[in-house]
Each structure stands twice: as structure tokens, then as C-alpha cells.
């Protein structure tokens, strides 16, 4: 029987090899095993090609039989819709990039399926793919759609206990939570929604005092009271990291190819080589470790054209942006797994695997992460915190809308310059050329100078057309790169805010319980204290966000304007050159 | 019975009040009397409006009865198609402006009906309109389509002897020609096509020695041998003439309105007031007087919106260009009718009318004009002349094509700047503004400077959008004005070349006749001499054309580039201002 799927959303093909699908269109698949989040199949028009796995649902006659498949699929059928509370949808206000949004020049924002995918997404993951043995055998970028960084919400949406989970953070923190549930949940109610971010991030478990672990001195993370409120203690040893010379490498006698990036951190000055899959692995570790830190998204995956120069250059730029945000972050920059990634010599396979296993077995993730945080002496005023968080929520919504709009405008502006503007200037240039050619037939000696000057003017306008076409890569593309990065952060914040709000709700509940005599003051005090930790961390993260935002947008706007000024000066120079030709004409 | 007409060509309405018609569409007319070359009627879709009279032929059941009409129409029925030789069409290679060509900004080229109009055009002229009495009673611009300057060929296409003609030149020269026909036409054949330009301009009559008249010293026109061949003797008293302050005047207690222009020639420094109809009258006099001089076309007529500021300003610019070409021309600048126009005080009605009558009764027009020309001592080599003329013919064809193309390109470029370019820059500006507004919600003191700088950048891009929209009136419009003027000249040259070629053909015929013993040498020598005069005048006119062309295009290209440079400098300045805002952000 042919394997079939139904399209959940419209998908417009943008690259060779892709095929467009319409919502509700029935597709025939070649395999239910996706390749980097893409499935191959034939649409109803008979066109064959790739489409995002997350845009379709596989149609099965027998849902239970799938558990016996090699691919061990947790398909949509095992997630009845009724189990996904609307609340979660409302909380998650971050708008996804519309499909086709970045059709031009190279797409700068990560390609995200429509918003609902967080609830309806399918994970096609074979258990073998998480094993260590697979680490080096796999081809570049070969992780599955489930941990694709673009699908932000995915990290919280595994299904507890039902089949193998790809997210260690959730299972580990939840299992701890479940174990301790009996002793503390009698007095403060638990969220009924076990899939809420608050629960799954470990936030609830921590607030309810269920997290425990030994915090080494090196793991301590300090929130200090700064000029504008709580902030992360600055990294006393700031560093940056260059990413150079992406080169194509092969192994298995050329059977497998991948791109290797040279990373040189300033604090070690030792170059290490890393592949995209290493970045991807690191990203997954960071996301599971830090519940209220906005981990910058790594550049999107791409199924086809991974070895094309444009793509490699674009990905490198994306990784540089990402690295810049990583090294700028006081907490992320210092964390063990990132340091391992930056400093471990990849030739020393044993050391690398040791660090890798250590990171994957890190206990201080999720709920336990909060244990590592030390806060300023005086606790925060929760009312003030709530108002700040609400203000920030409104802010992120507005910023998300405006960056989306700016991205669309800039994208279109770049497209117009490359096509229309160039064409118009070159048409003018061509017409001047044609006029000068007509004038050359006049057989008059005294018009030679004029004819040459007009011909030069024609060339000048052709050149100006080229200037317009070349310009976007110098000024608009960097803006789009910046916006893509911030779109990633903005997509992270709903979950971060959700965790803080969950903690605050527990505080309110505990106060009520104390008033009603159902809880003793000490226990409520503990909830207060832990909510204070979460709030300090959240506000510190927000403060950090604002600081890098102001830094990045200032720098990028200056760069943009400087480029624009050079551009118009170059045009002026060309025209002045043309004008001079008339002096002796 | 309803008056009906058939459309001869497609006409696309461009302005309010006009109605589109399709070739062969049957139209119902309100009146066969046109208003400034426009007829009012209803098309087959029932749309009512104006269309050019020259684009339609009036359908009549009884052609002869029209002679009893007040309007004394010489309709298409009296010109059977078979009487229009194809030869004439082929000679006349000047391409008409395609309808709709100048839809934007204000149309710069004169609106010409398709090429064939020269053969098929109808003249709706009431005899009353040529009387002196009508001169001041008529409303502005009220002459008919027959002498509309845009319809270039019209000046040669009256119908000899059949009903009243509006063209004195043709009737006078032809009647002279007819009178003398008996004595000279026995040996050299006459053109069978009595409507050919060669015949109607008086060229044939002159070559055959049929022109005669008393040439006063003041009428003498010298062709001298210059560096590059025959040229008009320079005007020893060069002058220019300013055209200022078009003002709206009324008469008949406000019943009639017209626009009056203030003309101040430098050689008199006396201001005179002239209306468009005076220019129009002058233009008609010049066209009938000078068969091989390219009289610059006056700006096109317009039925509606004549008192709108844009139109008045545009017409004034057109008249300034026209005046510049008139005063630059060694022959036109000095001729009596132009001097009368420039110097006669319009308040002195008697003097004005005297000069007007004198000009209208000028004997030295058409064939007789050639009598006034004195040539260099040594006659031209006709083979060389023929090669030069052929070269110029090719040149005008190429120049016509290239100026048409340039005009279309520039027109579209202007449209794009006013619409698309402006929109793109303003959309970018708006997106920056929206971003700055979103950022203003961040409640962070340290980002105030950045927010203001981004907001200023948004304003800067909005301003730049305006700059783009304003620019075409400064640089592209003048180019279109120039091209319009030259399109007019290029439309004149086929007829001028035709006259010279006709003369050369007569020379060849006469040589053959001499060889065959059918003509005596003295007679052939006379034809040779007169062909030499026509050739000298034609080459002098071509030389003048090249000189003003090089002068005008050089000046206009310099002006264009200077404007473009200022434009891009203005943009750069605005961007530098924006960039500075980030210094303290």
C-alpha cells in the first residue's frame, strides 16, 4: 500500500527540488523517513519533490502498528488534539514566518511551519540516531526535524513516558518531579496540563521545592542588582570567537561530505574545527539546560544546496552572529558545554567524547538549573516584577510585529533594487547608448566629443544599475541577518515568560492557601524565595536582551547608513565622471 | 439623422473628458464642427467624450450636399483613397508618436495621429475663421485641426481649387504654377501626383522656372560656404526673447478667457503680450513661407484643462524652447512676420492688423521663397549632395528611433521614480518608524537615543522617497521637452528631403532630355542652377540642425547630470544627518 500524507498547510516551493503543496492536498510519499526535516513525495499534480515533514500528517489505517516500525514513529495519532490546551496556543504569541517570506535574496529568517505545528508536529526519529556511535558516521546536518532549531516550541513537546523521548531535559526533570510529587503536592495544586512550558521546563518542580542537586562552585550563576534592575554578573573573562574558512571535507573515501568551520576563540587562541551538526548538538544541550535563557537559534537547516558557495557563506554569517550572541551572554559564554565545544581539540576523539557524554549527563539542567542561581540580597517586589514582565511581553509582541514588517519591507526593497531599480537605470543607460550610436551617424566632426560623452553616460547608467543590484548584499542582507537572529530570540520569550508567570501563580496560590490555613508560612516562604530566583533570572535575561538589542541595532543601523552613504557617493562619483566628459565636447 | 463617423485608428483616452475609440468603430457625433481638433461624440460602448477629429472620418450619405453646409466641409468622400499614392507614404518615414506614449508626466511630445493622416486627414474649417474679424473674438487656441501644428503634413494637403483652401501658400504657388505651366512643362514631365510635397511646397514650380517675384534687398537670404559645407549666413544681430508670467485674461465680461504671455526680446527690450493663438498663427505663416526650413513645432493644443497651472507652466516651457529655436535660426529669426510678432505693440490694434495682413499676403512664400536665396559662387556637386542627403535621411531615421526609445525609457523612468521608487523608500522609512515605535515601549533609559535615531532614519527615508518623486520634474522632464522639440524637427525633415530629392530628379530628367535632344542646354542649365539653390538651402538647414542639436543635447545632458548629482548628494546629506544621530545613541 502506498504511503500517503495530508498537507496541513500550504507550502510554496522556493528552491529546485522542492514541490508546492496545498492545505489538505493528499500526497504520496516515497518513505516516511524524513531527510533533515524534509519528506520526498508526489503531489496531486504528479509533481515529485521535497516538502517539509512538519507541513504534512502521514495517513495511517492502523495507528498502533506503527510502534513496531523501525522508525518508531510517534505520529499525530498518538497525540489526540483534545490534549493540547488552548491556553498554550494563546500564550505563544510569536508569529511564525509566513512561508515564502524569504524567497529573496537567500532567506534570512528561519523557515518555520505555521504556528500550530508546535502542537501538531510529528517527530520521526529512529532511536539509533541519538547514540554516540552515530555521532561521526552521520552526514552533516542529518539530525531530524524534531530538534531542528527553527521549530522552537518542539523542545517542550515530547510525550511523557509514551515511547522513547528525544528530550532528556524533560524526561529527567519530570522523573525527578514525579518521584518527589507525593511529599509536596498535597497543599499546592499542580498544573493539570502536564505539557505546559512551566511544567516541562522544570519551573514548576523547582518552585514547589522538588529540585535537588549538588551545586559545584563552578556552576554558580550570579544575578546582581544593576542600575536597571537584576542583571547577570558580567563575564570577568570576556572573549570572542572567530569563525573562518568553511571548507568541504570528505570521509569514507568521499562517500560522505560535510563543511568544516575553523573556530578560534580569543581566550585560547587555539583553532578547533566544527561541523554544523556540532553546533546543532550544542544548541540542543543549551536549550535543555537553561529554561529562562534565550539561547540564540543556530542558522536554519537546508536539505539541498548545502555545498553551494552562497549557502556556505550565508551559513557562516549566521554562525558568526550566533557566536557573537553566545560569547556576549554572561551565562552561556561560561557554561561547560560551550567551553568544551570551543576548546576541545576535535582530533582528540576520546576527550571530545568524554566532554560530550558529560554534557549529556549534566544534572544541572531544567529545574536544577535554578539551584545554581544566586540572587541579590533583597528579594524583588513581585508586583513590580509582574508589571515589568507584562511590559516586556507587550514589547516583544510589538518588536516581533515590527521586525517582521521591516524584514518583509527590506526583503522586497532588496528584490526591487536587484531587479527593477537595476533594470530602470540600465534601460536609461541603454537608451543613451542607442542615442549616441545614432548621433555617430551624423558625419559631423564637431559632435564626436558629444557622442562619446553620451556613450560614456550610457555606460555610467549601466554601471549604476549594477551598483543597485550589488548593494543589498552589503547593507540590506546584514539587516535581515540581524532580524533573523532577533526573530529567534523573540520566539524564545513566550516560553521564558510562561515559566516566570507560572512561578508567580504558585506564589499567589500559596498565599491563598496560607490565608485559608492549608499551608504553613515556611512552605509559602520557600515558594516565594524560589519564585524570586526565577524572577531574578528572567529579569536578568530580559535586561541582557535589551542591552544586546540596543548594541546590535545601533551597530547595524550605523553600518547600514554608512553603506548607503558610500553607495550614493559612488553613484555621484560615476555621474561626476560622466559630466566631465562634456567639458570638451 | 444622427451624424456618424468611422474611426480610422485606435485612440486611447488619456485625459478626463476623452473617450477611447477602436479602428473601424462607428461613432455618433454631436457636431461635425471640431473644437481645437477634437470632436465630441459617443462610441459604440455608449461612452461620451472627446476624440481627435483626425482619427475619424465622417460618414455621409450625400457628399455633394455638404458644400452647402455652413461649415463648408471638404470631407473624406471628396478624396477617394485611390488618389493617395503609396510612394508618398514610403517617403514619409517619420514615425508618429504612438498614442498614449506621453501618458506621463504631462505629455511632452506632440500628440500626432498615425502616419497616414497626412493623406487622409479631414479639414473642418469654416470660412469665417480665417477672417480678420474673427481674430480677436475667438477663444484661445480656437484654430482648427487643419492648422494644428502637431499635424505636420497638414500644411501641404489642401485640395487644389476645390472649395476654399485654408492654405494660402499652396494656392498661391500653385496658381502661379498653373499659369506658367503651358510654356515650360512640355519638355520636363510634371509629377502626376499633385499632392506630393515636392509639388505642393512649390519646389517643382521653382525648379521648372515657374516662380517669379520681386525680391527686395531685405528679403535676401544668403547661404555661405562654411567649414562643413553650405550654411545659413549668421544673424549679424543675434537676440533672444524671454517668455514670462503667463496670466489669465478675460474679455466679453468674463465670457471668454485666455492666457497671455509676456514676451521681451533682447533687441527691443519692449514687452509684448501674446496668446497661444498668435503663436499658432505665426507658426502657420512660417510653415507656408519656408519650404526647406524646419520650423519648430509650437506646443501641442489641449482641449481641457487649459487654465490649470501645470498645463500653463508646461506650455510656457514649450514656448520657451520654441522661442529659443526660433531666435537661434539665422533665417527664421530675421523674417518679417516673426519680427512683427515680437515687436508690434498688441495694444496698437491697427499696426498689428496691418502687419498681420501683410504677412498673410506675402508673395515670397513657397516656390518664391527660393528666389530670395543667394548661394555660394561655385555650384555644389550633386552626387556629393545626394550622398549627404541620403546620409542625413539615414541619420534622422536613427535619431528618430533612438529619441523615441529614449523618450519612452525616460517617461517610464520618471513614472517609476514617482510611484515605485518613492513607495519603496517610504516603505523602508515607515518600517524603521514602526520599529522605533516598538522600541519606545522598552522602558529602558539607555535606548532612548537609539529609538530617536531610528525614528529619524525613518523620516530620512520618507524624505528620500519624496526626493525621488520630485526629481523627474527637475531632470527628466527637461529631457522630454528637448526630445519633443526634436521629434517635431525630425517630423519636418522627410518633406524637406523630399523637396530636394524632387529637384534632383528633375535635374536627372533634364540631363536625359538634353541627351535625347528633347531639351536645350540652357533650359537644363536653369534647372541645374535652381536645384543648386534648393540643395544649398537644404544643406544649410541640415547644417543648422546639427549645430543646434549638438548645442542642445550637450547642454541638456550636462543639466541632467548636474541635477542627478545634486539629487544623489542631497540623499547622501540626508543619510549623513541620520548617521550622526547614532553618535550619542
TrEMBL record, chains A, B:
A 1,2-diacyl-sn-glycero-3-phospho-(1D-myo-inositol-4,5-bisphosphate) binds at residues 275, 277, 315. Residues 131-141 have a biased composition (Acidic residues). Keywords: Cell cycle, Cell division, Cytoplasmic vesicle, Endocytosis, Membrane, Mitosis, Protein transport, SH3 domain, Transport. It is found in: Cytoplasmic vesicle membrane. Pfam families: BAR_3_WASP_bdg, PX, SH3_9. Residues 84-95, 163-186 have a biased composition (Polar residues). Residues 109-129 have a biased composition (Low complexity). GO terms for molecular function: phosphatidylinositol binding. Residues 71-186 are annotated as: Disordered. PROSITE patterns: PX, SH3. It is a peripheral membrane protein. Residues 96-108 have a biased composition (Pro residues). CDD domains: SH3_SNX18 (cd11897). GO terms for biological process: cleavage furrow formation; endocytosis; endosomal transport; mitotic cell cycle; plasma membrane tubulation; protein transport. GO terms for cellular component: cytoplasmic vesicle membrane; plasma membrane. Residues 1-61 form the SH3 domain. It comes from the Eukaryota. Residues 239-349 form the PX domain. PANTHER family: SORTING NEXIN (PTHR45827), SORTING NEXIN-18 (PTHR45827:SF4). Belongs to the sorting nexin family. This is Sorting nexin.
Amino acid at each position: 500500500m502506498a504511503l500517503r500524507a495530508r498537507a496541513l498547510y500550504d507550502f510554496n516551493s522556493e528552491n529546485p527540488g522542492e514541490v508546492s503543496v496545498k492545505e489538505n492536498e493528499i500526497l504520496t510519499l516515497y518513505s516516511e523517513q524524513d531527510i533533515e526535516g524534509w519528506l520526498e513525495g508526489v503531489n496531486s499534480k504528479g509533481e515529485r519533490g521535497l516538502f517539509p515533514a512538519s507541513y504534512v500528517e502521514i495517513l495511517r489505517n492502523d495507528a498502533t502498528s506503527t510502534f513496531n516500525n523501525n522508525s518508531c514513529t510517534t505520529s499525530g495519532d498518538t497525540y489526540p488534539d483534545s490534549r493540547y490546551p488552548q491556553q498554550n496556543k494563546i500564550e505563544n504569541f510569536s508569529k511564525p514566518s509566513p512561508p515564502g517570506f524569504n524567497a529573496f535574496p537567500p532567506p534570512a529568517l528561519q523557515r518555520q511551519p505555521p504556528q500550530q505545528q508546535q502542537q501538531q508536529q510529528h517527530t520521526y526519529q529512529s532511536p539509533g540516531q541519538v547514540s554516540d556511535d552515530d555521532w561521526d558516521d552521520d552526514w552533516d546536518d542529518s539530525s531530524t526535524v524534531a530538534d531542528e532549531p527553527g521549530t522552537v516550541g518542539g523542545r517542550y513537546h515530547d510525550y511523557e513516558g509514551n515511547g522513547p523521548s528525544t528530550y532528556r531535559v524533560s524526561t529527567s526533570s519530570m522523573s525527578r518531579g514525579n518521584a518527589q510529587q507525593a511529599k509536596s503536592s498535597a497543599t499546592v495544586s499542580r498544573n493539570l496540563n502536564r505539557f505546559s512550558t512551566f511544567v516541562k521546563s522544570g519551573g514548576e518542580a523547582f518552585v514547589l521545592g522538588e529540585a535537588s542537586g549538588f551545586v559545584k562552585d563552578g556552576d554558580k550563576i550570579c544575578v546582581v542588582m544593576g542600575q536597571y534592575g537584576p542583571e547577570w554578573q558580567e563575564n570577568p573573562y570576556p572573549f570572542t570567537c572567530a569563525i573562518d574558512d568553511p571548507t568541504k571535507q570528505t570521509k569514507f573515501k568521499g562517500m560522505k561530505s560535510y563543511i568544516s568551520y575553523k573556530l578560534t576563540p580569543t581566550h585560547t587562541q587555539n583553532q578547533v574545527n566544527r561541523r554544523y551538526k556540532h553546533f546543532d548538538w550544542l544548541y540542543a544541550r543549551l536549550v535543555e539546560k537553561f529554561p529562562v535563557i534565550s539561547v540564540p537559534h543556530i542558522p536554519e537547516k537546508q536539505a539541498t544546496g548545502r555545498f553551494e558557495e552562497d549557502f556556505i557563506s550565508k551559513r557562516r554569517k549566521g554562525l558568526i552572529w550566533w557566536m557573537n550572541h553566545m560569547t556576549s551572554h554572561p551565562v552561556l559564554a561560561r557554561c561547560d558545554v560551550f567551553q568544551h565545544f570551543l576548546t576541545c581539540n576535535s582530533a582528540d576523539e576520546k576527550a571530545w567524547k568524554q566532554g560530550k557524554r558529560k554534557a549529556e549527563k549534566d544534572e544541572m539542567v531544567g529545574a536544577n538549573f535554578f539551584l545554581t542561581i544566586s540572587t541579590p540580597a533583597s528579594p524583588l517586589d513581585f508586583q513590580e516584577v509582574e508589571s515589568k514582565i507584562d511590559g516586556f511581553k507587550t514589547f516583544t509582541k510589538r518588536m516581533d510585529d515590527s521586525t517582521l514588517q521591516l524584514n518583509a519591507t527590506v526583503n522586497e526593497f532588496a528584490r526591487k533594487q536587484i531587479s527593477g531599480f537595476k533594470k530602470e537605470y540600465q534601460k536609461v543607460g541603454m537608451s543613451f547608448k542607442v542615442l549616441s550610436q545614432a548621433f555617430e551617424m551624423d558625419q559631423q566632426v564637431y559632435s564626436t566629443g558629444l557622442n562619446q560623452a553620451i556613450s560614456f553616460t550610457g555606460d555610467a547608467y549601466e554601471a549604476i544599475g549594477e551598483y543597485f543590484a550589488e548593494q543589498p548584499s552589503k547593507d540590506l542582507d546584514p539587516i535581515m541577518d540581524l532580524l533573523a537572529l532577533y526573530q529567534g530570540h523573540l520566539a524564545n520569550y513566550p516560553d521564558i515568560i510562561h515559566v516566570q508567570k507560572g512561578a508567580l501563580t504558585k506564589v499567589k496560590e500559596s498565599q491563598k492557601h496560607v490565608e485559608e490555613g492549608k499551608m504553613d508560612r515556611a512552605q509559602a516562604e520557600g515558594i516565594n524565595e524560589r519564585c524570586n530566583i526565577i524572577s531574578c533570572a528572567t529579569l536578568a535575561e530580559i535586561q541582557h536582551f535589551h542591552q544586546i538589542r540596543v548594541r546590535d541595532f545601533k551597530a547595524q543601523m550605523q553600518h547600514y547608513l554608512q553603506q548607503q552613504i558610500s553607495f550614493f557617493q559612488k553613484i555621484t562619483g560615476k555621474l561626476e565622471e560622466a559630466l566631465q566628459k562634456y567639458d570638451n565636447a
